[in-house]
UniProtKB/TrEMBL annotation, chains A, B:
SUPFAM superfamilies: NTF2-like
Organism whose genome encodes this protein: Rhodococcus rhodochrous J3
Phylogenetic lineage: Bacteria, Bacillati, Actinomycetota, Actinomycetes, Mycobacteriales
A Pfam family per the record: SnoaL_2
Name the UniProt record assigns to this protein: Steroid delta-isomerase
Domain SnoaL-like: 17-116
Amino acid sequence: MTVSEADARTQRIRTTVHAYLDAVAAGVAADIAALYADDATLEDPAGSEPRVGRAAITEFYKGVEATENTTELLTLRIAGSTAAFHFRVVTKAGEQTYEIEPIDVMTFDDEGRITSMRAVWAPSDMRVR
Amino acid sequence: MTVSEADARTQRIRTTVHAYLDAVAAGVAADIAALYADDATLEDPAGSEPRVGRAAITEFYKGVEATENTTELLTLRIAGSTAAFHFRVVTKAGEQTYEIEPIDVMTFDDEGRITSMRAVWAPSDMRVR
């Protein structure tokens, strides 16, 4: 891989991460899942049973359709085909507002689609506003 | 695994991450490598050829023996047997001082030893002070 090919890959990954956070905030499960490769895996939180494939991943994101979310990227690091990013999600569910700042770890294919996602956070990281 | 077993695991991982950053700052390669399991893997940066096993990992950290480093934990997230943490390393090498804030992703065995490490950062993230 040449330097410019590597730069282009990094740029594709960066674009997908931003699109991911925008899609989570917009809250349409199918649109979020469309950023994943067909046979991608999702572990949220890391260590839980992985969800495999687009249908299972879409199902997972149905949860965000019932809530109002805003997202903010805090720190993004990219190396090779891996991204790790620290971000804030503020969730309004009924009268309650929750805030959490996970670190997600994603890998990507050559088209910049997410091939795996592992969300690193614990319930104790969640704050009620 | 009971809740208290899970809490104990989280605490062991937290202790190892702090010990890791302290050991990197202290700068003795063998002491850093001692925090890894015997057959651990290390990818720094993520996507590079993994170093496998204690000897190769010790060799990797010889680099920190030639420089003066300070470390600071910025954010630590733990889920199951995975930790992701954002930290700052300030390195003095001769007259130059460099600063970088990677996100490292580690997995751990039941004794809290590191079984894999992937450092997510790019040369462009490095700043000269």
